[in-house]
Design brief:
This protein is of the alpha/beta class. It contains twelve helices and 15 strands.
Length: 358
Amino acid sequence: MIKRKGLKSAALAIAAFSLIAGACGSDSDTATEETTAEVTEETTAALPGEGILACQVTDTGGVDDKGFNQISYKGMQDAEASLGVTIDLLESASDADYAPNLQNFADKGCNIIVTVGFLLGDATKAAAEANPDKNYAIVDSAFDPPIANARGLIFATDQPSFMAGYLAAGMTKTGVVGTFGGINIPPVSIFMDGFAKGVAYYNTQKGATVKVLGWDTAKQDGTFAGNFQSLDDGKNIAKSQADEGADIIFPVAGPVGLGSAQFAMESGGKVKIIGVDVDMSVSNPDAAEVYIASVLKNIDAAVLAAVTDTVNGVKTSDNYVGTLANGGVGVAYTAVPAELQAEVEAIGQGIADGTIKI
């Protein structure tokens, strides 16, 4: 297991400095001391999470995956800054670390434990049932039947992926686009299925014949790396799809997808990439030029909401579901023609208001 500590809130540090400065001042500084004390009191009052320990366990992709583990941890950092909670992190080197990491945090007295990824489902379920006094939340999974102290943080990523499929079909020069996943699990395949359906919708609307590699909607199966770690696998799959004509590829594979971006860089502009989870043109700046857009899964907002509930004394099994309508998912545009972007945004609005069905 790999352990990383969260940073203390800047607001708390400033408040502590203010108290020290006030104690060392002269009599002529009385007014300043009183003002500082008032500000300190207000700052403390504005941080309701003081004394709450919020902890996070990543999957094997690690917190620096430039994707969903990283944005999940950003949600923890946002909670630290805005609520004043103390945060802690354990990274899982393998799936054998899931249960020990969860037990470590239970023993430490974490008030809420957030786990990142569908693959932590069984370990999270067992931990939540064994520790009914603690809150749990899991990204990309939910429990059926519900567990009283555990909630799922799930996302309708087929919605923005549908938009991305339409976008890719509108920008391909070869008439072939591709997608692939890390492992064939629902939080991955939902992106791929939405993407393929978006391409099909473009073909219907425009009378086009854009082909999708890597996913068969009828069979609900496609191309998978079998892991979320190997950049070489990402490069090899991207090369294979490019050899079949794909000039736009949508990898849903965590760090494996970074390998596809490397291949795109080496292709000399012949292949472009659609990022996943976060705006990859920002999170992966060394390869920013290859991204035309990214499908966003705003996990940070969901994690912050879960921690906020714990701070407010709320224990719930109600799932958070991120959609286009509530801003839980979306699309970031990097290099998309304005006219096409307007079309894609109109499709997104249609999905949000229910006039376009996926």
